[in-house]
Specification:
Layout (H helix, E strand, L loop, with lengths): L6 H19 L22 E7 L2 E8 L6 H14 L15 E8 L3 E3 L4 H7 L6 E6 L2 E5 L10 H11 L12 E5 L1 E7 L10
Antiparallel strand pairs: 1-2, 1-3, 3-8, 4-7, 5-6, 5-7
Helix pairs in contact: 1-2
Amino acid sequence: MEPSLSPEDVDVLFELADFGVREGLAGRPAPVVDPAMLEAPLRRHLGVFVTLEVAGELNGCIGTVEAVQEVGPAVPRLAWAAAFSDFRLPALTAADYPDLGYKLSLMTPLEGIPSGSEEEVLRALRPGVDGLVIRHGQATGTFLPAVWAKVPEPLEFLRHLETKAGLRPGHWPAGMRAWRYQADEHRRRAVDIPRRSAA
């Protein structure tokens, strides 16, 4: 997969994610990491999501599908935000930390697909493989490929995404655009990550 990083690079990303969370638990703001301190692969612009789970339950998910930022510096900021700024879920606490798990989702570049109708999108969409972005004017939404595990039926997947984007499900306006992408996913328990004291 295009965004694949070496196992060593992925290890560093988990260290950076954990560093961001621990800074927040210590009452400090999201850390700013100097890209010059990182190896070249971690200075690549990649779409990335950081998902936090406590005892297997979702406790935060923040990221961007589009490759607008260098992945190494982005990860600790996103981890901090997932822990303390995801308005949908309670902020992470020190008591949660022993049961904390991280998932990093590294995105392939967006690939435009025919989007003149729901049917065109569904023909291009690969269930269980593709994430999807839809956009109409200011309305936009995305589902990561992992959402297929909860919504396996393609039309239902698309209709739920239309709702998430603030659009009326089943009403496909002229000018709608759609993109597919894939995600390279990695998981790690916080207790298994070496502690990074500086970045």
